[in-house]
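Incident log entry.

Two folding requests arrived from the same account within the same minute. Monitoring flagged them as a possible duplicate submission, but the sequences differ. Recording both here for audit purposes.

Request one:
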Amino acid sequence: MSRQNCAIGKDYVPASFKGVQFYCTEADVEGGRRGAEGEFPFGEQTAYADLGRKIRVYNLTAMFREDDHVSDSSALFAACESPGPGILVHPTCGAVMVACRKIKLTDKIEDEAGQTYAEMEFVEANTMGLGGFGGSLFGIISSGLSTTSRDSFIRDYRPTLVSQPWRTDIIDRAQSLIDSVATTAIQTMPADATAQKRRDALRMQEVAQDDGLAASAGNVDKALTTGFIAITDNVQDPATKFRTMKRLANAASHISTLPAGVAEESEEAVLSRHRVLAAIGMAEAAMAQKYGYVDEALAAMDAVLAVLDDEAQVAYDNCDNPLFLELRKYATEFNKMMNDLAYRLPSLVAVDFMGGVHPLVAAYAIYKDAKRHRELELRNKVDPNGRFSPIVVGVAPA
Protein backbone atom coordinates (compact mmCIF):
# COMPACT_ATOMS: atom_id res chain seq x y z
CA MET A 1 0.00 0.00 0.00
CA SER A 2 1.46 3.36 -0.94
CA ARG A 3 1.53 6.27 1.44
CA GLN A 4 1.83 10.01 1.01
CA ASN A 5 4.52 12.10 2.63
CA CYS A 6 4.10 15.76 3.42
CA ALA A 7 7.54 17.35 3.06
CA ILE A 8 6.47 20.92 3.80
CA GLY A 9 8.51 22.14 6.75
CA LYS A 10 9.74 18.64 7.48
CA ASP A 11 13.48 19.37 7.65
CA TYR A 12 13.36 23.07 8.51
CA VAL A 13 14.12 24.53 11.92
CA PRO A 14 13.18 27.99 13.25
CA ALA A 15 15.88 30.48 12.29
CA SER A 16 17.66 32.75 14.75
CA PHE A 17 20.86 34.77 15.10
CA LYS A 18 22.47 35.39 18.48
CA GLY A 19 19.23 34.21 20.08
CA VAL A 20 16.94 36.56 18.10
CA GLN A 21 14.37 34.48 16.23
CA PHE A 22 12.86 35.40 12.86
CA TYR A 23 10.61 33.83 10.26
CA CYS A 24 12.84 32.87 7.34
CA THR A 25 11.23 32.87 3.89
CA GLU A 26 14.34 32.10 1.83
CA ALA A 27 17.77 30.70 2.66
CA ASP A 28 20.80 29.71 0.65
CA VAL A 29 24.46 28.88 1.19
CA GLU A 30 27.37 29.56 -1.15
CA GLY A 31 30.59 27.57 -1.19
CA GLY A 32 33.10 25.93 -3.48
CA ARG A 33 36.86 25.85 -4.00
CA ARG A 34 39.45 28.55 -4.53
CA GLY A 35 41.94 28.07 -7.32
CA ALA A 36 44.55 29.73 -9.48
CA GLU A 37 43.58 29.38 -13.14
CA GLY A 38 46.14 29.50 -15.91
CA GLU A 39 45.28 30.40 -19.50
CA PHE A 40 48.25 30.88 -21.78
CA PRO A 41 48.35 33.07 -24.91
CA PHE A 42 48.51 31.30 -28.23
CA GLY A 43 48.27 27.91 -26.55
CA GLU A 44 45.69 25.20 -26.04
CA GLN A 45 46.88 24.12 -22.59
CA THR A 46 45.30 25.38 -19.38
CA ALA A 47 46.23 24.90 -15.75
CA TYR A 48 44.55 24.93 -12.37
CA ALA A 49 45.99 24.89 -8.86
CA ASP A 50 43.69 24.16 -5.93
CA LEU A 51 44.06 26.78 -3.19
CA GLY A 52 41.57 25.35 -0.70
CA ARG A 53 37.90 25.70 0.22
CA LYS A 54 36.09 28.99 -0.18
CA ILE A 55 34.62 30.62 2.87
CA ARG A 56 30.90 29.84 3.11
CA VAL A 57 28.38 32.62 2.71
CA TYR A 58 24.79 32.36 4.00
CA ASN A 59 22.07 34.60 2.53
CA LEU A 60 18.71 34.70 4.32
CA THR A 61 15.50 36.61 3.82
CA ALA A 62 13.18 37.15 6.78
CA MET A 63 9.70 38.54 7.20
CA PHE A 64 8.13 40.17 10.25
CA ARG A 65 4.34 40.53 10.13
CA GLU A 66 3.16 40.62 13.74
CA ASP A 67 1.87 43.78 15.42
CA ASP A 68 5.34 44.38 16.86
CA HIS A 69 7.13 43.82 13.54
CA VAL A 70 9.05 47.10 13.88
CA SER A 71 10.52 46.26 17.31
CA ASP A 72 11.18 42.63 16.34
CA SER A 73 13.04 43.61 13.18
CA SER A 74 14.96 46.24 15.15
CA ALA A 75 16.09 43.57 17.61
CA LEU A 76 17.47 41.49 14.75
CA PHE A 77 19.13 44.58 13.28
CA ALA A 78 20.81 45.26 16.63
CA ALA A 79 22.00 41.65 16.89
CA CYS A 80 23.54 41.87 13.43
CA GLU A 81 25.32 45.12 14.36
CA SER A 82 26.63 43.79 17.67
CA PRO A 83 30.37 43.01 17.76
CA GLY A 84 31.78 39.56 17.25
CA PRO A 85 30.46 36.42 15.57
CA GLY A 86 27.49 34.47 16.89
CA ILE A 87 25.38 31.37 16.40
CA LEU A 88 23.12 31.36 13.34
CA VAL A 89 20.48 28.65 13.42
CA HIS A 90 20.04 28.08 9.70
CA PRO A 91 16.72 26.51 8.61
CA THR A 92 18.48 23.66 6.76
CA CYS A 93 22.15 23.75 7.78
CA GLY A 94 21.64 23.78 11.54
CA ALA A 95 23.75 25.80 13.97
CA VAL A 96 26.76 27.53 12.45
CA MET A 97 29.14 30.20 13.73
CA VAL A 98 28.91 33.27 11.51
CA ALA A 99 29.50 37.00 11.36
CA CYS A 100 26.97 39.33 9.75
CA ARG A 101 28.32 41.16 6.72
CA LYS A 102 25.19 43.21 6.17
CA ILE A 103 21.49 43.46 6.94
CA LYS A 104 18.87 45.50 5.11
CA LEU A 105 15.38 46.18 6.52
CA THR A 106 12.61 47.13 4.12
CA ASP A 107 9.14 48.49 4.96
CA LYS A 108 6.76 48.81 2.00
CA ILE A 109 4.66 51.35 3.79
CA GLU A 110 2.11 52.03 1.07
CA ASP A 111 1.65 48.57 -0.46
CA GLU A 112 2.34 46.24 2.48
CA ALA A 113 1.85 48.17 5.68
CA GLY A 114 2.39 46.07 8.79
CA GLN A 115 5.21 43.96 7.34
CA THR A 116 8.97 44.32 7.48
CA TYR A 117 11.41 42.41 5.29
CA ALA A 118 15.02 41.71 6.20
CA GLU A 119 17.80 40.64 3.85
CA MET A 120 20.93 39.32 5.55
CA GLU A 121 24.34 38.10 4.46
CA PHE A 122 26.47 36.05 6.85
CA VAL A 123 29.95 34.62 6.47
CA GLU A 124 31.25 31.65 8.44
CA ALA A 125 33.47 32.73 11.31
CA ASN A 126 35.61 29.80 12.36
CA THR A 127 37.97 32.12 14.21
CA MET A 128 41.42 30.81 15.02
CA GLY A 129 41.08 29.43 18.51
CA LEU A 130 43.47 29.52 21.44
CA GLY A 131 46.77 27.90 20.59
CA GLY A 132 46.16 28.16 16.87
CA PHE A 133 43.47 25.54 16.43
CA GLY A 134 41.27 26.46 13.48
CA GLY A 135 37.97 25.27 14.94
CA SER A 136 35.94 27.29 17.38
CA LEU A 137 33.71 26.16 20.17
CA PHE A 138 30.77 28.57 19.76
CA GLY A 139 30.27 29.29 23.42
CA ILE A 140 33.96 29.92 24.13
CA ILE A 141 33.96 32.74 21.61
CA SER A 142 30.55 34.34 21.98
CA SER A 143 28.74 33.02 25.04
CA GLY A 144 28.72 34.84 28.35
CA LEU A 145 28.60 31.44 30.04
CA SER A 146 32.16 30.52 29.09
CA THR A 147 33.52 33.92 30.10
CA THR A 148 31.75 33.83 33.48
CA SER A 149 32.85 30.24 34.04
CA ARG A 150 36.45 31.22 33.31
CA ASP A 151 36.28 34.14 35.76
CA SER A 152 34.98 31.84 38.50
CA PHE A 153 37.71 29.31 37.80
CA ILE A 154 40.54 31.88 37.84
CA ARG A 155 39.17 33.22 41.14
CA ASP A 156 38.73 29.90 42.94
CA TYR A 157 41.56 27.67 41.62
CA ARG A 158 44.36 28.34 44.14
CA PRO A 159 46.23 25.10 44.86
CA THR A 160 49.40 26.95 45.93
CA LEU A 161 47.52 28.20 49.01
CA VAL A 162 46.66 24.66 50.10
CA SER A 163 48.94 22.54 52.27
CA GLN A 164 50.00 18.99 51.46
CA PRO A 165 48.76 16.39 50.74
CA TRP A 166 45.67 18.17 49.40
CA ARG A 167 47.68 20.41 47.08
CA THR A 168 48.84 17.34 45.22
CA ASP A 169 45.28 16.00 45.07
CA ILE A 170 44.03 19.23 43.46
CA ILE A 171 46.81 19.37 40.89
CA ASP A 172 46.39 15.66 40.10
CA ARG A 173 42.70 16.24 39.45
CA ALA A 174 43.42 19.12 37.08
CA GLN A 175 46.10 17.13 35.26
CA SER A 176 43.81 14.14 34.91
CA LEU A 177 41.13 16.26 33.23
CA ILE A 178 43.65 17.99 30.95
CA ASP A 179 45.09 14.62 29.98
CA SER A 180 41.65 13.28 29.02
CA VAL A 181 41.00 16.33 26.83
CA ALA A 182 44.49 16.27 25.28
CA THR A 183 44.27 12.55 24.54
CA THR A 184 40.90 12.99 22.84
CA ALA A 185 42.23 15.94 20.82
CA ILE A 186 45.20 13.88 19.63
CA GLN A 187 43.07 10.82 18.83
CA THR A 188 40.68 12.89 16.72
CA MET A 189 43.40 14.92 15.00
CA PRO A 190 43.42 14.37 11.21
CA ALA A 191 46.48 12.92 9.51
CA ASP A 192 47.13 16.20 7.69
CA ALA A 193 47.06 18.33 10.87
CA THR A 194 49.45 21.26 10.83
CA ALA A 195 52.66 21.36 12.83
CA GLN A 196 51.18 24.17 14.93
CA LYS A 197 48.25 21.99 15.98
CA ARG A 198 50.62 19.21 16.99
CA ARG A 199 52.76 21.63 19.01
CA ASP A 200 49.66 22.88 20.81
CA ALA A 201 48.74 19.30 21.68
CA LEU A 202 52.21 18.82 23.16
CA ARG A 203 51.77 21.96 25.27
CA MET A 204 48.55 20.52 26.70
CA GLN A 205 50.42 17.34 27.59
CA GLU A 206 53.17 19.38 29.25
CA VAL A 207 50.62 20.96 31.59
CA ALA A 208 49.17 17.50 32.27
CA GLN A 209 52.62 16.25 33.34
CA ASP A 210 54.26 19.27 34.99
CA ASP A 211 52.97 20.01 38.50
CA GLY A 212 54.35 23.53 38.42
CA LEU A 213 52.48 24.42 35.22
CA ALA A 214 49.28 22.79 36.48
CA ALA A 215 49.41 24.90 39.66
CA SER A 216 48.62 27.99 37.57
CA ALA A 217 44.95 28.74 36.87
CA GLY A 218 45.89 30.46 33.61
CA ASN A 219 47.82 27.44 32.31
CA VAL A 220 45.07 25.00 33.25
CA ASP A 221 42.32 27.11 31.67
CA LYS A 222 44.31 27.60 28.45
CA ALA A 223 44.99 23.86 28.21
CA LEU A 224 41.33 22.96 28.71
CA THR A 225 39.92 25.56 26.30
CA THR A 226 42.56 24.76 23.68
CA GLY A 227 41.69 21.07 23.95
CA PHE A 228 37.95 21.56 23.62
CA ILE A 229 38.44 23.89 20.65
CA ALA A 230 40.68 21.29 19.01
CA ILE A 231 38.11 18.53 19.49
CA THR A 232 35.37 20.75 18.04
CA ASP A 233 37.55 21.41 15.01
CA ASN A 234 38.63 17.78 14.56
CA VAL A 235 35.26 16.02 14.90
CA GLN A 236 32.96 17.06 12.07
CA ASP A 237 30.06 14.65 12.62
CA PRO A 238 27.63 16.23 15.15
CA ALA A 239 26.51 12.86 16.56
CA THR A 240 30.10 11.75 17.15
CA LYS A 241 30.94 15.14 18.62
CA PHE A 242 27.99 14.89 21.01
CA ARG A 243 29.10 11.46 22.26
CA THR A 244 32.68 12.68 22.66
CA MET A 245 31.66 15.75 24.67
CA LYS A 246 29.30 13.68 26.81
CA ARG A 247 32.11 11.26 27.63
CA LEU A 248 34.35 14.16 28.64
CA ALA A 249 31.58 15.63 30.80
CA ASN A 250 31.23 12.28 32.59
CA ALA A 251 34.98 12.27 33.24
CA ALA A 252 34.44 15.20 35.62
CA SER A 253 31.38 13.85 37.40
CA HIS A 254 33.17 13.79 40.74
CA ILE A 255 32.37 15.59 43.98
CA SER A 256 35.24 17.03 45.96
CA THR A 257 35.95 15.23 49.25
CA LEU A 258 38.75 17.60 50.26
CA PRO A 259 38.49 19.73 53.43
CA ALA A 260 36.15 22.70 53.21
CA GLY A 261 37.76 25.97 52.29
CA VAL A 262 40.37 26.72 49.63
CA ALA A 263 41.12 23.03 49.00
CA GLU A 264 37.52 22.12 48.22
CA GLU A 265 36.96 25.33 46.24
CA SER A 266 40.03 24.69 44.08
CA GLU A 267 39.06 21.14 43.16
CA GLU A 268 35.42 22.09 42.53
CA ALA A 269 36.61 24.98 40.36
CA VAL A 270 38.50 22.79 37.88
CA LEU A 271 35.71 20.20 37.82
CA SER A 272 33.15 22.92 37.10
CA ARG A 273 35.26 24.55 34.37
CA HIS A 274 35.70 21.22 32.62
CA ARG A 275 32.00 20.31 32.82
CA VAL A 276 30.83 23.72 31.58
CA LEU A 277 33.07 23.51 28.51
CA ALA A 278 31.87 19.96 27.85
CA ALA A 279 28.23 21.03 28.27
CA ILE A 280 28.67 23.86 25.76
CA GLY A 281 30.19 21.39 23.32
CA MET A 282 27.31 18.97 23.87
CA ALA A 283 24.74 21.74 23.38
CA GLU A 284 26.23 22.91 20.10
CA ALA A 285 26.56 19.35 18.79
CA ALA A 286 22.95 18.66 19.78
CA MET A 287 21.71 21.72 17.88
CA ALA A 288 23.74 20.78 14.80
CA GLN A 289 22.36 17.24 14.52
CA LYS A 290 19.54 16.14 12.26
CA TYR A 291 17.14 13.84 14.08
CA GLY A 292 14.70 11.36 12.68
CA TYR A 293 12.21 11.42 15.55
CA VAL A 294 11.17 13.75 18.34
CA ASP A 295 12.34 11.43 21.13
CA GLU A 296 15.90 11.46 19.81
CA ALA A 297 16.06 15.25 19.95
CA LEU A 298 14.46 15.37 23.40
CA ALA A 299 16.90 12.74 24.73
CA ALA A 300 19.86 14.84 23.54
CA MET A 301 18.30 17.94 25.09
CA ASP A 302 17.78 16.19 28.44
CA ALA A 303 21.39 14.99 28.51
CA VAL A 304 22.69 18.55 28.08
CA LEU A 305 20.23 20.06 30.55
CA ALA A 306 21.22 17.47 33.16
CA VAL A 307 24.81 18.73 33.07
CA LEU A 308 23.78 22.40 33.06
CA ASP A 309 21.30 21.90 35.92
CA ASP A 310 23.90 20.09 38.04
CA GLU A 311 26.37 22.92 37.51
CA ALA A 312 23.71 25.51 38.31
CA GLN A 313 22.97 23.75 41.60
CA VAL A 314 26.67 23.69 42.51
CA ALA A 315 26.99 27.39 41.66
CA TYR A 316 23.90 28.12 43.77
CA ASP A 317 25.27 26.17 46.74
CA ASN A 318 28.58 28.06 46.43
CA CYS A 319 26.77 31.43 46.24
CA ASP A 320 28.36 32.06 42.83
CA ASN A 321 25.49 34.20 41.56
CA PRO A 322 27.02 35.35 38.22
CA LEU A 323 27.76 31.76 37.16
CA PHE A 324 24.38 30.53 38.38
CA LEU A 325 22.53 33.19 36.35
CA GLU A 326 24.57 32.54 33.21
CA LEU A 327 23.97 28.79 33.46
CA ARG A 328 20.22 29.37 33.81
CA LYS A 329 20.23 31.81 30.91
CA TYR A 330 22.16 29.42 28.66
CA ALA A 331 19.95 26.46 29.65
CA THR A 332 16.77 28.44 28.94
CA GLU A 333 17.93 29.51 25.49
CA PHE A 334 19.15 26.02 24.62
CA ASN A 335 15.90 24.48 25.86
CA LYS A 336 13.85 26.82 23.69
CA MET A 337 15.92 26.17 20.55
CA MET A 338 15.85 22.39 21.01
CA ASN A 339 12.10 22.35 21.62
CA ASP A 340 11.57 24.37 18.46
CA LEU A 341 13.64 21.79 16.59
CA ALA A 342 12.21 18.69 18.28
CA TYR A 343 8.53 19.33 17.88
CA ARG A 344 8.81 19.68 14.13
CA LEU A 345 9.92 16.04 14.00
CA PRO A 346 7.70 12.95 13.76
CA SER A 347 6.31 11.91 17.15
CA LEU A 348 5.98 8.41 18.61
CA VAL A 349 2.91 6.36 19.39
CA ALA A 350 2.55 3.37 21.74
CA VAL A 351 -0.17 0.84 20.89
CA ASP A 352 -1.28 -1.81 23.38
CA PHE A 353 -2.29 -5.00 21.52
CA MET A 354 -3.21 -6.77 24.80
CA GLY A 355 -0.84 -9.63 23.94
CA GLY A 356 2.08 -10.68 21.77
CA VAL A 357 1.68 -9.54 18.18
CA HIS A 358 3.44 -10.39 14.91
CA PRO A 359 5.41 -7.47 13.34
CA LEU A 360 3.37 -7.66 10.12
CA VAL A 361 0.12 -7.42 12.04
CA ALA A 362 1.38 -4.54 14.15
CA ALA A 363 2.63 -2.63 11.10
CA TYR A 364 -0.71 -3.04 9.32
CA ALA A 365 -2.66 -1.98 12.41
CA ILE A 366 -0.55 1.15 12.94
CA TYR A 367 0.29 2.20 9.39
CA LYS A 368 -2.17 0.23 7.25
CA ASP A 369 0.97 -1.03 5.56
CA ALA A 370 2.48 -4.39 6.61
CA LYS A 371 5.67 -3.62 4.65
CA ARG A 372 6.68 -1.14 7.34
CA HIS A 373 7.30 -3.89 9.89
CA ARG A 374 11.05 -3.24 9.57
CA GLU A 375 10.56 0.24 11.05
CA LEU A 376 8.87 -1.28 14.10
CA GLU A 377 11.57 -3.91 14.49
CA LEU A 378 14.14 -1.15 14.98
CA ARG A 379 12.32 0.07 18.10
CA ASN A 380 10.75 -3.09 19.49
CA LYS A 381 12.34 -6.36 20.55
CA VAL A 382 11.21 -9.50 18.73
CA ASP A 383 10.88 -12.54 21.04
CA PRO A 384 11.94 -16.11 20.08
CA ASN A 385 8.41 -16.71 18.69
CA GLY A 386 8.84 -13.82 16.26
CA ARG A 387 6.41 -11.52 18.10
CA PHE A 388 6.51 -8.12 19.78
CA SER A 389 5.52 -7.53 23.39
CA PRO A 390 1.93 -6.29 23.90
CA ILE A 391 2.94 -2.58 23.77
CA VAL A 392 4.43 -1.65 20.38
CA VAL A 393 6.17 1.70 19.87
CA GLY A 394 6.29 3.29 16.45
CA VAL A 395 6.28 6.62 14.66
CA ALA A 396 2.87 8.28 14.69
CA PRO A 397 1.26 7.97 11.24
CA ALA A 398 1.09 11.24 9.29
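Request two (distinct sequence, not a duplicate):
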Amino acid sequence: MDNNELTILEKHIIQRCIFLPMIRIALEQDKKIIALTNTKFKAQYLEALNLAVLRVTEDMRKNKDDLFDHHIHMTRRTWLDYEVYTRGHVFKISYQKSVAGDWIYERVRQYLTTE
Protein backbone atom coordinates (compact mmCIF):
# COMPACT_ATOMS: atom_id res chain seq x y z
CA MET A 1 0.00 0.00 0.00
CA ASP A 2 1.36 3.36 -1.04
CA ASN A 3 1.61 5.79 1.87
CA ASN A 4 0.08 8.42 -0.42
CA GLU A 5 -3.21 6.53 -0.72
CA LEU A 6 -6.03 5.91 1.71
CA THR A 7 -6.43 2.36 2.95
CA ILE A 8 -9.69 0.50 2.42
CA LEU A 9 -10.42 0.83 6.15
CA GLU A 10 -9.78 4.58 6.07
CA LYS A 11 -12.07 4.96 3.06
CA HIS A 12 -14.78 3.00 4.89
CA ILE A 13 -14.48 5.19 8.00
CA ILE A 14 -14.56 8.38 5.91
CA GLN A 15 -17.57 7.21 3.92
CA ARG A 16 -19.50 6.42 7.09
CA CYS A 17 -18.57 9.79 8.57
CA ILE A 18 -20.02 11.55 5.54
CA PHE A 19 -23.15 9.47 4.94
CA LEU A 20 -24.40 8.38 8.38
CA PRO A 21 -25.45 11.93 9.37
CA MET A 22 -27.38 12.17 6.09
CA ILE A 23 -29.24 8.98 6.96
CA ARG A 24 -30.13 10.32 10.40
CA ILE A 25 -31.38 13.60 8.90
CA ALA A 26 -33.55 11.71 6.39
CA LEU A 27 -35.03 9.45 9.08
CA GLU A 28 -35.74 12.43 11.36
CA GLN A 29 -37.48 14.20 8.47
CA ASP A 30 -39.57 11.09 7.77
CA LYS A 31 -40.57 10.98 11.45
CA LYS A 32 -41.83 14.56 11.25
CA ILE A 33 -43.82 13.87 8.10
CA ILE A 34 -45.40 10.68 9.43
CA ALA A 35 -46.26 12.38 12.72
CA LEU A 36 -48.37 14.89 10.76
CA THR A 37 -50.30 12.26 8.79
CA ASN A 38 -53.36 10.21 9.61
CA THR A 39 -51.58 6.94 8.88
CA LYS A 40 -53.30 3.89 10.27
CA PHE A 41 -50.19 2.42 11.92
CA LYS A 42 -48.54 5.72 12.83
CA ALA A 43 -47.24 4.53 16.22
CA GLN A 44 -45.60 1.46 14.69
CA TYR A 45 -43.98 3.47 11.88
CA LEU A 46 -42.68 6.06 14.32
CA GLU A 47 -41.31 3.33 16.60
CA ALA A 48 -39.50 1.69 13.67
CA LEU A 49 -38.02 5.05 12.68
CA ASN A 50 -37.02 5.81 16.29
CA LEU A 51 -35.19 2.48 16.51
CA ALA A 52 -33.47 3.14 13.18
CA VAL A 53 -32.37 6.59 14.36
CA LEU A 54 -30.95 5.07 17.55
CA ARG A 55 -29.01 2.50 15.52
CA VAL A 56 -27.63 5.17 13.19
CA THR A 57 -26.66 7.36 16.15
CA GLU A 58 -24.82 4.47 17.78
CA ASP A 59 -22.97 3.77 14.53
CA MET A 60 -22.06 7.45 14.31
CA ARG A 61 -20.57 7.27 17.83
CA LYS A 62 -18.55 4.19 16.92
CA ASN A 63 -17.38 5.84 13.71
CA LYS A 64 -16.28 8.93 15.64
CA ASP A 65 -14.11 6.66 17.78
CA ASP A 66 -12.69 5.08 14.60
CA LEU A 67 -11.83 8.54 13.25
CA PHE A 68 -9.97 9.30 16.46
CA ASP A 69 -8.24 5.90 16.65
CA HIS A 70 -6.99 6.19 13.05
CA HIS A 71 -5.99 9.88 13.40
CA ILE A 72 -8.32 11.00 10.62
CA HIS A 73 -9.34 14.66 10.56
CA MET A 74 -12.04 15.79 8.14
CA THR A 75 -13.05 19.22 6.89
CA ARG A 76 -16.29 19.56 4.97
CA ARG A 77 -16.20 21.82 1.91
CA THR A 78 -19.72 21.00 0.66
CA TRP A 79 -22.21 18.21 1.43
CA LEU A 80 -20.21 15.68 -0.57
CA ASP A 81 -16.74 17.26 -0.78
CA TYR A 82 -14.23 16.91 2.04
CA GLU A 83 -10.57 17.33 2.80
CA VAL A 84 -9.17 14.50 4.88
CA TYR A 85 -5.93 14.76 6.79
CA THR A 86 -4.29 11.54 7.95
CA ARG A 87 -0.78 10.12 8.15
CA GLY A 88 0.70 13.51 7.21
CA HIS A 89 -1.23 13.77 3.93
CA VAL A 90 -4.26 15.71 2.76
CA PHE A 91 -6.70 13.79 0.58
CA LYS A 92 -9.59 15.34 -1.34
CA ILE A 93 -12.71 13.20 -1.11
CA SER A 94 -15.69 13.85 -3.33
CA TYR A 95 -18.80 11.78 -4.03
CA GLN A 96 -21.39 12.12 -6.76
CA LYS A 97 -24.99 12.45 -5.60
CA SER A 98 -25.94 9.17 -7.29
CA VAL A 99 -23.19 7.23 -5.48
CA ALA A 100 -24.16 8.82 -2.17
CA GLY A 101 -27.83 8.08 -2.81
CA ASP A 102 -27.16 4.43 -3.59
CA TRP A 103 -25.05 3.97 -0.45
CA ILE A 104 -27.62 5.73 1.73
CA TYR A 105 -30.59 3.88 0.22
CA GLU A 106 -28.99 0.49 0.90
CA ARG A 107 -28.06 1.39 4.49
CA VAL A 108 -31.51 2.79 5.28
CA ARG A 109 -32.94 -0.59 4.31
CA GLN A 110 -30.55 -2.23 6.78
CA TYR A 111 -31.42 0.19 9.58
CA LEU A 112 -35.15 -0.32 9.08
CA THR A 113 -34.83 -4.11 9.09
CA THR A 114 -35.36 -5.50 12.57
CA GLU A 115 -33.82 -8.91 11.94
